[in-house]
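Task 17 of the worksheet. Students: predict the tertiary structure of the chain below and write it out as structure tokens. Keep your answer in the requested format; marks are given for formatting as well as content.
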Amino acid sequence: MDSGRAAVVSGATGLVGRRLVAALVAAGRPVRILSRDPAQATRSLPDAIAFGWDGRRWPSDALAGADAVIHLSGEPVFGGLLTAARRARIRESRVGSTLALVEALGSLASAERPKTLLCASAVGYYGDRGDAVLDESAGAGQGFLARLCTDWETAAAGAGALGVRVVSLRIGIVLAREGGALPMMAIPFRLGLGGPLGEGTQWVPWIAASDLVRLVQRVLDDGSVCGPVNAVAPDPVRNEVLTRALARALHRPAFLRAPAFALRLAFGEIAGELLGSRRCIPRRAESIGFTFEHATLESALAAELA
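Model answer:
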């Protein structure tokens, strides 16, 4: 089917997945993608081989003989109020699917088993930590996302007992022109209604989508990296600084403020994640010599809003 350098990618048609698949193919790595609609996935990503997937049961023919699995899929957290049903779907799409992946890897003969698992996680792992500087050695925080990420990473770590190198990517806010947080943040600014969230003093870890893709590739190729990796730029900023930078990039004002109580009324418990402070730094990425093309917020916004 393809060489032993093949990478299996879940979430391949998502925001990061599309860019990543293109980069992996350009680098000469065969890519196998998992999708609930493999025909549509093939049309979207014709250079990859698509396999049917229900979001839980991993097809053994997609995994067998591959070099690595990159697990990016998961139901959006900021897609509505955290009802019991949404909590269950979010957990199942992350923790449940990862537990099923480890089980599927265990069912393969060792010679057919991928050597590396790169599993998405999030900076929500750290909870609300104020001004504390957070590298990968910092412990887990409190709250829904912190518990979710802890369980998610624990599920992925189970592959280590199978001889698989496991990396959990604690991803910050991804800045990309084609989707995700940036277009949503830009809407109120384009309407002249932009401004800080709450007091605006909370730290916001972010990363340009292009740098995230490059970091994934670097970690994939560097067998010395294992465990958690903060996938964030080296320049976390306070929310009010992000607000001003985005306003300048869009040539719009930023004088309105979204009060914390209004955010809690609108979003419920998940508003705490918007107001929480996470001053994350990419200690692990820097220790392996990774260089960010967009190390400053201004550079990232200029590239993605051009």
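Marker's comment: Residues 84-106 form the longest helix (23 residues). DSSP finds twelve helices and 13 strands in the chain.
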